[in-house]
Design brief:
The chain has 2 domains: 104 residues, Immunoglobulins (Immunoglobulin-like); 111 residues, Immunoglobulin-like. It is built from 2 helices and 19 strands. The strands form 4 sheets. Strands 10, 11, 12, 13, 16 and 17 form a 6-stranded antiparallel beta sheet that branches. It has a 5-stranded antiparallel beta sheet with strand order 1-2-3-7-6, with no helix packed on it. A 4-stranded antiparallel beta sheet has the order 5-4-8-9, with no helix packed on it. Strand 10 and strand 11 form a beta hairpin. The structure holds copper (II) ion. Copper (II) ion binds next to loops.
């Protein structure tokens, strides 16, 4: 028993030494790379005192069941009052770690604050589940959890960046470059070569865009520029987006036409900003020599 205690103490000491080493490492390596993982939006299961509880879901593919969770406050009590945003009180985005199997759904909440929706998985893998909501009177939040679905996984490589996506007989063209400075992304929807000018309202707009960083599925906040009743119902829909870093991003554009929601999927690559805008870039834009780690983990 005392041996075990000693060992435990030794473990703590090791952790402490390791932490100190990390601290020194951080000091020694200046701001060459923004510490992305810690600050990555949408990847935590708690923020601002709110928590996304563990998610109950089928553990294997093709098994029918339900997906269930709660949002709790800092006292551990289930939150039951949410603000309506984009026509819904909670948006649930589910995607496999490789970006495949994207789903955007709206579970129903029971009076005691349990969110649920019928659910089955098509494929095995590690899935990220994002809850996008705003408790009444609080800021909007994106919290997420991972759900493991048993089975052999064949991860798909991230598709190369492309300006055209095809889905359900529609062709969607992306114009505008995603950037760390913020930019406008415009999507043009065509069917059989003809511009689609009668998009149907979906979630209070003519399209809904979700953007995730491919490397870690960090969740970007994207703002629609169009508005039902003010902007024409296609063929163009526009958004403002700002990428938190360089790298590849997965874009999922949901639009409704013919009574159905369709999802066009894009990969967009954010390159290093040209340094000729001089100011505003406090990360030593003059020293572009040291190699940035392009090796993806
Ligand atoms: Cu939604």
């Amino acid at each position: 028993m005392s041996d075990r205690l000693k060992l435990a103490g030794f473990g703590v000491a090791l952790v402490a030494v390791f932490a100190v080493a990390l601290g020194i490492g951080k000091l020694a390596a200046p701001d060459s790379e923004p510490a992305a993982p810690a600050a990555a939006p949408g990847l935590a299961d708690s923020a601002d005192g709110y928590t996304l509880t563990a998610i109950e879901a089928p553990g294997e593919p093709k098994a029918p069941g339900a997906l269930r969770f709660r949002i709790t406050d800092r006292d551990g009590a289930a939150v039951t009052r949410f603000a309506t945003r984009h026509d819904e009180k909670l948006h649930l985005i589910v995607v496999r770690s490789d970006g495949a199997g994207y789903r955007h759904v709206h579970p129903a909440m029971s009076p005691d604050g349990v969110w649920s929706i019928d659910w089955s998985w098509a494929e095995p893998g590690s899935y990220r589940v994002f809850a996008d909501f705003a408790p009444e009177g609080a800021d909007e939040l994106v919290l997420s959890r991972t759900v493991e679905v048993a089975g052999a996984v064949a991860p798909q490589p991230v598709p190369p960046p492309a300006a055209v996506a095809r889905v359900d007989g529609y062709e969607v063209t992306l114009t505008g470059d995603l950037s760390t400075a913020g930019s406008e992304l415009r999507f043009t929807v065509r069917r059989n070569g003809a511009p689609v000018t009668d998009l149907e309202p979906y979630l209070g707009a003519y399209a809904h865009l979700v953007a995730l960083r491919a490397a870690d599925l960090a969740y970007l906040h994207v703002h629609p520029e169009g508005e039902v009743g003010r902007t024409p119902p296609g063929p163009e829909v526009a958004f403002h987006a700002e990428a938190p870093s360089t790298g590849d991003y997965l874009l999922y554009l949901d639009f409704k036409h013919g009574g159905r929601v369709h999802t066009a999927e894009f990969t967009a690559s954010v390159a290093e900003q040209p340094s000729d805008d001089g100011h505003g870039n406090e990360h030593g834009s003059g020293s572009g020599e040291h190699g940035h780690g392009h090796g993806h983990g």
